[in-house]
Amino acid sequence: MKKFICIMMAAVLCLFCVACTGKQNDETKPAGDNTTATPSGDSTTAEADVTTAEADVTTAEAGDVTTAEEVTSEESTAAAEVPTVPEADAVASIGSKFYGSLDDALTAVKDGETINITKDFTQEDTLVTYNEGKYTINGNGHTITANIVVDAFLKVEYAEVDVINLKVIHEDALHGVQNGQLGVCAFNADNDGIITLTDVEVLAKYGDGLNISHNGIMNIISGKFEIDAANDAQQSNLICLNDTGTLNVKDGTFKRNGTTSTKRALIRMNGSGQTLNIEGGAWEASCGRLIYTNGGSAADQMRNITLSGCTVTLGVDDPASYSYDPFFQVGTGGGLNLTIKGGTYEVKGNCPMTFFNCSKKNINVVIEDGTFINGAGEFFISNAAAEGTDTASNITVKGGTFTNTAGSFLSASNIEGGVVIEGGTFNTKNAEEANALKALAGSSAAVIN
Fold this sequence. Notes:
This protein is an alpha/beta fold and 449 residues long. The chain folds into two domains: 52-81; 116-448. It contains five helices and 35 strands. It has a 25-stranded mixed sheet that branches. It is elongated, with a radius of gyration of 43 Å. The chain starts with a helix and ends with a strand.
């Protein structure tokens, strides 16, 4: 019995110890262990996974938006693409693409490409270059009739365009003064634009045939350029060279038809800072000047003109129904340097046209060589009263052959000053003038009477 009691007490003691041990373990176990089914680390991982999933969703959404924008951009580009037409309906092409208008071709053309004109057509509105760079318009012998009232058939800005083998005609019915506007021209090099014309033909009526301004440059390599100025009161300059423009002429034929000049010319220069280089070509005007300048006099904005190798004929054999102005005249202002290095310059018949009228300020004319044949007018007029001042105008003759068929070489003021003769040969039928020339030139020039 005693033994049984001891065994029972030992068993109770063991149960007590187990219970106490279990309670101690529960009180000292880490909090994280309470979530045995879902450990705290796994919970954090799940939350991170959720965040990552959300980020993935955000990224996917952002990616979808970008892709949509790219698609929109591509659609816009496709929408902006210049439409093409079948070859039979085209007036111009670039490579294998054909366009229903020259305007579309100018919109599509890229640097280095060539626009080919494929048929004759009529152009109602001014064409403007849209793309910078250098490209070519090949007319392939076709004719464009330009029914342009204001501005130009083609205006080149901020680009360099070579035009070859093309004819442009202005219809007189839509030319000249309409809605109070003037200044119609075939080609206009404006705002740093450069135009080079090779084998190009322009027939203009009223307006200006060609125009250059605002640092524009026009290079004429060859071609035929004519203005039929039936009504000279409406502009009717063959070429108008405006402020800071440049004109370079290699060759070609240039003609101005008309009955009265009204201060019009083959070349009219408005403003200051222009550059004109004429190396050749045949220039003819039944009436009007070769060059007329208007405005400008500042010494730092001088016009610079160089003539060499060209052939110029002004006037007609019978001048009865025509009015004439100086061969070369400076209008208002002044401010130019003119150098003549060669060429032939003739006033036909007995036309009363003065060769050089330089009675304004800041004018310097130097004649190095050339053949000059005059009719009934005077050869030289200069600003003698201003001689020796900062604004003096001077004509210096260093060479050339001068023949007066009816008029005189010098006005009374020329004898007093303004004209310096350092060389050349002078042919005159007037004995009194021959003596005056000899007195002025001394032994530096040959005077033939």
